[in-house]
Amino acid sequence: MATVEAPETSIDFQKRGRWLDRWEPDNNEFWENGGKQTARKNLMFSVFAENLGFSIWVIWGSVVVSMGAAGFAFLGKNNPDAVSNALLLTSTPTLVGAALRVPYTFAIPRFGGRAFTAFSAALLLLPVLGLTWFINQPATPMWVFMLLAALAGVGGGNFSSSMANINFFFPEGKKGAALGINAAGGNLGVAQTQLFVPLVITLGTHLMAKDAAGYRFGITLALLMWIPFILVAVFGALRYMDSISGAKSDGKSYKLALTNRHTWIMSVLYIGTFGSFIGFSFAFPTLLKANFPDLAKIGWMSTIGNLAFLGALVGSMSRPFGGWISDKVGGAKMTLYVFGGMSLATLLIMAALAAKSFPLYLTAFLLLFVLTGIGNGSTYRMIPSIFSAEAKRRASEYGQDPSEALISAKRQAGAAIGVIGAIGASGGWLVQQALRLSNVHYHSMNPAFTAYAVVFLGMAAATWFFYLRTSFARVPSLAYANV
Predict the structure, then answer these.
(1) Is the pTM of this model over 0.90?
(2) For residue 436, what pLDDT is reported?
């Protein structure tokens, strides 16, 4: 009997390359007879590569706070534009990374998960090696570093390709957990960079003299330490990952998703959650240094970043909780509460700045980061629910086959997630630009924080208007009560 079933449940490879010619994760026999192990193996190496992508994407947030001391005048403490220049450098990779998320999503069906994971990981060597070279050239103008910052944006695109790839490997009932692990693993790269890069810079500076050359040496060490990990990611992808022959892009679903208003509504809401998470993660080291410069006099905090990692850490860890609690109370309700809380946290940040209270400032920012993480989970929970509910409503109104409508809804939701993820990430650039412009024109960041508070309340109102008000649900059985 086992001999008869083997051809139906075995995993077949092409003769050249690690391509899976047959992949049926929703077939329970196939899944239990090797499919599960293969999927988990690919998930493990995908998380590792994506984690490094986030690490390099956000590395500028930790490097710029030391570049002034390293001898770069445009970020020096005597330069009145230093904070604005720093925010310009940290926001550039955010924007490029957001733009790359769309083509990176389509790259998996075109090139295969194995090859593109290895390629995208190898690309991380370019911003690391480029910055390593120019950080040791004190006369380098700012525009060169702007180009290098843009190059670091390749790390931001890794999220979409990684999520698209893992989405093909797991059955419907297990995709949520797999994608959650993949996303959280990537987001943690932000925290680890903001923890270890400042520590290594400090260590390198203490090994040398505490002068500009010493800071350049410390930054160089903090950059070079990523090289071995990137090489391991490239080797691991090439040696152990697989590509799925049947993983093809669905152009029709993308067209339908782009014409669906909910794709754009959810994109705006995701700007508020993920855009805030990534934007404040990039800016947090600079904000700490700008608003509480005396902290730099504390020995182990000499590069400020040793506390900045806390924001990204709590934001990453709270993301799975956002999805879990949304399953209980509904994604839309949770998102509404999140935006209300984010507005309050922003007001607390302003109060902390007015009182010059660092404990309140740090507490308020950590609260904001926790809420962005929960919001990331709750908004992602909303997307498939919205498309499924719309499919049921249309099937009821027009007499369509409900099963076919739901299949189409799943495809559209998958396509919409790629678009929403890209637009949401661009919000990180908007967050940082608002801070920069506020500092340039008003010599204060309060106008930017005031705008954030108002925008978050507006997003809460939009969540209620589109997904919670009773008049929206015209057919009781199809209501968005659990969106």
Answers:
(1) no
(2) 87
